[in-house]
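Exercise (ungraded).
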Amino acid sequence: MGRYLLRRLLQLIPVFIGTTFLIYWLVWSVPGDPFAGKCGERPCPDSFVNMMTDKFKLDEPLVVQYGNYMKNLFQGDFGQTFGGREIGDIIATAYPNTLKLALVALAIEAVIGLTAGVLTGLRRNGFLDNLVLVSSLFLIALPIFVIGFVAQWLLGVQWGIVKPTVSSEMRLSELIVPGFVLGSASMAYIARLARTSIAENRRADYVRTAIAKGLPMRRVVGIHLLRNSLIPVVTLLGTDLGALMGGAIVTEGIFQVNGIGRQVYRAIITKESATVVSIVVVLVLVYLLMNLLVDLLYAALDPRIRYE
Amino acid sequence: MRVSKRASSAVALGAAFALVASGCSSSDSDGGDAGASSDGAITIDGTQPEVGLVPSNTTETGGGAIIDWIWTGLVEYPNDGSAPRNAVAESIETTDSKVYTIKIKKDTKFHDGTVVKAKNFVDAWNWGAYSPNGAQNGSFFADIQGFDQVHTEDPDGAEGPKKAPEPAAKEMSGLKVVDDWTFEVTLAAPTAVFPTKLGYSTFMPLPDAFFTQGAEAFGKKPIGNGPIKFVSWEDDVQIKLTRFDDYSLNDKMKIKDVNIKLYQDDTAAYNDLLAGNLDFQQQVPVSAIAGDKWKNDLGERAISSTTPSTGIIAFPIYDKRFQNPKLRRAISLSINRQEISDKIFFGSRKPADSWANPLTPGAKAGNCTACQFNVDEAKKLLAEAGGFTGELVMFYNADASHKEWMEAVAQQVKTNLGINARAEGVPTFAVFRQNINAGKMTGMYRAGWQQDYPDVENWVGPLYVTGGSSNDGKYSNPQVDALAKEAASAPSLEASHAKYAEAVALIDQDVPSIPVYFGGQQSGHSEKIKKIELSNVGELDLTSVEL
């Protein structure tokens, strides 16, 4: 177990370096001079372009720029945006907001998705099953921005139940609607996955045995059935946190959440590779750590799984 | 020209006619004391400023609006479009349009309590012009004598390996402080319009604190001299402003606090406006304009205004295919501007019929004969020009909403002239501008102009004079250049405007670009606001707001 963990953690290093360089290189491959569109319908003065080029050492080769960036990064300095903001500050404010939103989404999708999945898996082809089937198909088919706009307009503007946008305090009550919107597609997948998994294991020998032993139904489902059926669902949920954080761009825009989505979008448009890389680095780490956590959870769910 | 990050260009009503340079002390207007007793707070929409709030370094609308609010310049542009009037200036006097003596009002204050003196203007201008400071608006000081000594150009362009030489001087020789309340400006050449320019944000004074703190620190916590002072700035979230109680000039605030909510999406702001979460939105989203939805949503709270801005399609005249004026005129005549205004913009923008936007002082309405819709004449001219071979591509930047109208124009040219025309999107404004700056456009392209200061000069000099800062198509007509030069050095604004009218008549013959529509703005406010006015560039005039 310890060796396994160490090996997994060591694997992070090449992945980390590979992804950061790739992103650095990709941002500079996007065409467009960062200072060409800054001054409206007239070119920026040479003096401005020169000063910025000097300040950010943009005339160096890409590899040198990347090297400088990494050197500073290991000293805890994320660098500055072209507008003069500390990227470290941006990350410190934007990430917690996005994480908070993603966690709310994750909680909503886990609770609703799992409940729907278990209920329909146990009683297939009933009214509830059909209802969940249709509504999950609906959620998967609709693009997230449609769900977002409709929810914002109906709940926020027409009915006035919630405020249309999230305030800067990011209260939990304000995050329920955006969280639902963000988690809606995954919620549908989880319901379906859980349903299939439960339905399959429902006929497994060990469940039949448990029922035959006369265990109460609650125990059969809660301990025996659910524990085995959860493995694919946990895999999905685990990787979903990373996906939710990365995919929050649209939701953050609609509901005015000050998260990484807006920062990444702005940084890509303005070709601020240092900002893009810094934000994505943290995102990559979230993905990798969540994957690791999921792998470790398998053993808790299924004692037959061992780590070498 | 500020870059609007919004889909639509944002700007203003108003047309001033002539500037009485001296002795034009702004009299009463509205009694300033009425508001001092009442309090209240509003929340308005905004966007995160891209750089720190330093007047000579801000070119985009998000930061520009805030600078306009927290600073008052030597002159100010009245909301109703009448002549620019003195604000901080007591008088601006000249005998030859070359040497100006500027007296400022005594004892107006910066927000940190220090008094605004003549040297605050001189120091601020010298800082903005000094090229190593890299101010984005630095070139606005080019009129002043000695600018070439403090502002050096890169010998091989910014891209080249050579560095710009260190400027020979740190201060412009044309600026002289006479005493605490007087300074003298000597221009490199007579410029009648110079006093008009002084209301543009680049020319704002800077307190001594700017020079002790440095631009970066100052920009995060700016100190102005206007009716509203800066309180705090939470990046990407909000900027808070409050009334400056020591303000001694005319436009006092009638409310107390202003919270600028920094939106990333104009639809979110619009929904907040509808839900009563926001008190003012300068430009409602495009989606709300279709079918006049916004008017139904807002009723009497919808404000429709025209702005001194024009949507243009430009020709790369450096491309051989576009060098025949007859061809350019033919293309312009084949465009049905009325139809585009009605069908694409739902009447929110008016068809263009003159070269300089007619809301601008000195500009005349209807002087663009090439802006008519005349298919027969267009066909005739096209035949005389020898037709157009190959494909005619019209480029636009796809990161703002220009697709529909550019495609409509291309379709009209195709239908009416039989030219194989089509519109093509370039992904971002940065890529688009990069190609334009480099002179590498292979077809016609979308352009737009919004006045920096209210005078026809701003619509001719930068756009159509050889070497003008935004003459991207490299249009050049020696007669136009000569007339523009005469106009600039004319003894009075009237004489200057007459010369510009002559220059515009020549431009109309050459058709260096195609004006298509005049800008419009659709704003909305909440029920809380009782009275509201927009500035000459369509920004909210915070001093006019009454609850």
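Further reading is listed at the end of the chapter. For now, observe: The radius of gyration of chain A is 24 Å. DSSP finds twelve helices and no strands in chain A.
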